């Protein structure tokens, strides 16, 4: 019986020592994370990148049109002018008649296309009158007739800068008889190529 108490005592003492050892043992705890440090730099802004700059389109290099046509083209211009013929007007009028419009329209489109390539090449539209009326009045009337023809050709596509006008009034008649059939021939516009500086 004595040995039983002794054994219990040893067991109790062992438990006490073991318990005391366990009570003193500290559990390792992870240290808390450091407090965040205040940062005075501003947070980056979310920005969208600027759109790429478009490079302006480079103009296509075009050869400058020649200001004076070659001999073959000049011959074609002369042929067209000759086919346009003179446009005639009624007495004391500068409005284009239907037959005058038909005359001017015959080859004016082709003429306009050719002249577009030669901006320095010019035509002259001459205005004429019959012998009746004063010289001053007929100069003004011939000028109005030349301008009416020029307006028509500009509307057909000929550049205005390539058309000059001049009035000869009752000077330089094509017919000198003193009758209506002759006077009608003198009431006209005539187109020529100006003398060019080649």
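-> sequence recovered:
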């Amino acid at each position: 019986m004595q040995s039983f108490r002794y054994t219990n005592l040893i067991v109790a003492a062992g438990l006490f020592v073991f318990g005391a050892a366990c009570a003193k043992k500290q559990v390792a705890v992870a240290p808390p994370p450091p407090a965040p440090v205040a940062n005075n730099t501003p947070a980056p802004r979310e920005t969208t990148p600027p759109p790429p700059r478009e490079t302006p389109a480079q103009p296509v290099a075009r050869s400058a049109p020649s200001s004076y046509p070659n001999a073959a083209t000049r011959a074609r211009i002369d042929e067209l002018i000759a086919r346009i013929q003179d446009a005639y007007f009624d007495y004391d009028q500068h409005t284009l008649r239907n037959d005058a419009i038909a005359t001017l329209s015959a080859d004016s489109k082709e003429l306009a296309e050719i002249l577009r390539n030669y901006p320095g090449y010019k035509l002259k539209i001459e205005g004429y009158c019959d012998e009746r009326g004063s010289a001053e009045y007929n100069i003004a009337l011939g000028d109005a007739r030349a301008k009416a023809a020029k307006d028509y050709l500009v509307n057909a596509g000929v550049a205005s800068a390539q058309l000059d006008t001049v009035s000869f009034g009752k000077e330089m008649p094509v017919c000198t008889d003193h009758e209506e059939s002759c006077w009608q021939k003198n009431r006209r516009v005539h187109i020529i190529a100006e003398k060019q500086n080649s």
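DSSP finds five helices and four strands in the chain.
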